[in-house]
Design a protein that fits this description.
Layout lengths: L17 E5 L8 H8 L6 E6 L4 E8 L2 E5 L10
Parallel strand pairs: 1-2
Antiparallel strand pairs: 2-3, 3-4
């Protein structure tokens, strides 16, 4: 049985602490739309990984909005 997607094509989301997205090759990142979708649902952390460009972005929900966090010495620790 497949999960139904909403009008934007996203699968249904229940409360989650962490969502990790790995960018697919040759696709535009959808992280801004996803951040807007996940914040009202209370997803505490969102990680965006781009393996081709070799970077990771870490977002943490604070007062209903995401703030980008950076690691120290190429390491990140969840709050």
């Amino acid at each position: 049985m497949q999960a139904r997607c909403d009008e934007a094509g996203f699968p249904p989301v229940t409360r989650r602490q962490l969502v990790i997205e790995v960018k697919a090759p040759r696709r535009r990142p959808s992280r801004l739309r996803r951040l807007q979708r996940y914040a009202p649902l209370g997803v505490e952390e969102y990680w965006f990984i781009d393996p081709l460009e070799r970077f990771v972005l870490f977002y943490v929900l604070n007062a209903g909005q995401y703030a980008m966090h950076t690691g120290i010495d190429n390491r990140y620790q969840s709050p």
